[in-house]
Design goal:
75% helix; 215 residues; homotetramer; mainly alpha
């Protein structure tokens, strides 16, 4: 009977199975991450600005920070949409699935750090590779979460194969493009940054270019 | 059949369609934005205050920061209500609509930056125009989101024309007033700030003045 | 018919009526506020600590900051419970009610500022009165929101009189105690701080002391 | 009748009983806490980095901060899952239960402080004991919340005994391990940090080791 302590039952079987709570935590982390990014845009100090011209020049100097800000907002947006899409298809969650997603959220919280690093050292391959690694971890963990969920039958059975196909094609296509974009830093890190922004705009705007839609 | 991988089906058709998640992310971003504004109110440093009089004087010196703080909280409140109103009318969302709203939220995260800039350089037309641009983008993107949603039939058919009329009149009326308020900076940026606060109070308090209700 | 633009209809009639969104925004603002408070607890700088004894002494020096931190967390907790109680009784919301609550949330976002001010200048009556004013505004605006909601028939009719009685007694009782606590700063601000903490603990722990339950 | 003011009725009987709001506040606080942790990872200053080698060395110097960051994210994840599990089993909440959980959330907001303290003074027993105390309070308050909820009949009657058994075994097992881990600081604080990370990984990954599953 249910009210007799059951020694065979495991704490982990009853833990962490609320999709709603996981979505709530994720929305909060993405929201804070997106808003913290703006702290990378330092408002000019008062004593460096004596005239309108000074202010315009100082704001112009924020351009690299604005580009990385925009890039990181796109990154967070893309992965927020991707996670929402995965969670929206779930029939139920369990503890392991929840912990894989907590790993994903750990990588999300690192985006403001990676962004500030790249904004400050945009000439550095070390900073660029660190940024790319962050994107790579985000994509990989989301794929791992999907593969685990498919094996643990967390998605509706009739849909799983179809979602699997779309998810794998999307993650592998996107990660291949990001890898190629990152490799451009062999020539110049600014080419890599331009390529990554272009890839992200492609996923955000989703233009109707047949070749790109395949990826 | 649903469990056969369907090569014609596109990832984007299944992505990003949860109104609930979009509302959760938006509430988080507005909440963080509204709370970060307060960081613009710097607590006086300990060594500058020796007496009650010193503290009173220092708090008095925060007045420009308090005015821009109040103005920005009103801005965020007005656009939070506007977005809530739009999302509350939706029948369903899709990926493109979600991305237009992510663009709107990008502009929301910039409000703390624009606010701090204007608080620090309240004499500067550059800072004022930057602030106005932020408001302009917020209003425009919300209108674009509505127009897209109406064309993509995301609103209940019976309501769309009526909501369209109210939304367009509201956005165009408000943006015209903001533009006029901004142009006052030709004379003095402080007139512009006073005008923008007055316009915002009008929308927040919604007094029963026939002329203003038309806008 | 509904799909004919209706010139008599006002934007404000359809705006801002989601209780769920208001609760989501409020939870976010309280959550950020409660977490930002901790930034008032400055971790000792590395070069000021050479030994375990140094660290212990530095942590001891954080005591005033810890007391105001605890006091402010209690304040936010009390008003979060109070707002939750009011929203939980609502049958529906409207735009004016939403804006009164946005005013309440504006006062919530100021609590981290007031807290840091009082932690830094705990000897100052100016800082104490500013803190008390913040609590006073929180309580008053919540009462105004209730009175407006009662007149606008936003609460279930059968309950309104009973909720009105409990709400008024609670707000007026608590605000009278806070006022008396604040007035102790005529003698010493530290007495006021102790009194305010005691009042808040009374409301958080809700002991079964007949006299206090009346208030 | 309900609309007659009832002098016997107490404000506290109607206050603070929304599980949904409590979950929303908790998700927000955990989300902000998890994201604030990253502020402990200071991006290297611009003038300390002249080459790729400098940047690599500076990032290497962040290693202790990364370890405590990872440890604290695990801590927050474990207690988020634990709280979610408890709230997910609730049938209803009341004001006292809500205040016990607010006490739990107070301890959650302190984790970024404890983390930064330990990252900065990883050689210090004082910092380590403070960190352990934070974990101890988190576990204890969650157990107190459960015991109160069981006595106040907030859980479904048929399940209470079974949940009680699992909850007590889990909290006492975990807290015993944390205590042993902390005591290793008698030899070296770095052993304690390694032990705590190992314990947390055990709970996050939940390996199928019979001995550990018992705890």
């Amino acid at each position: 009977m249910a009210n007799v302590p059951n020694r065979q039952r495991d704490y982990n079987e009853v833990a962490g199975s609320s999709i709603h709570r996981l979505a709530g935590l994720a929305d909060g982390i993405f929201a804070v991450g997106m808003t913290l990014l703006v702290l990378g845009l330092a408002v000019p100090a008062m004593d460096t600005v004596k005239s309108e011209g000074d202010l315009l020049r100082q704001l112009g100097g924020l351009l690299p920070a604005v580009v990385t800000y925009f890039m990181s907002f796109l990154t967070l947006g893309i992965f927020w949409v991707a996670q929402q899409t995965q969670l929206g298809r779930l029939e139920r969650a369990n503890r392991n699935f929840t912990w894989i997603h907590l790993g994903f959220l750990l990588a999300v919280t690192l985006i403001p750090f990676s962004t500030l690093l790249l904004a400050r050292f945009h000439w550095s391959r070390v900073a660029l590779v660190e940024y790319w690694l962050n994107i790579f971890v985000l994509g990989s963990v989301l794929l791992v979460a999907f593969e685990y969920g498919a094996r643990a039958k967390l998605f509706p059975e009739a849909d799983t194969a179809s979602i699997a196909h779309l998810t794998r094609r999307r993650v592998i296509g996107a990660q291949t493009l990001y890898l190629l974009g990152m490799l451009l830093c062999i020539f110049d890190t600014h080419w890599s940054i331009a390529a990554i922004v272009a890839i992200q705009l492609n996923y955000a705007i989703a233009p109707r270019i047949p070749l790109l839609r395949r990826l």
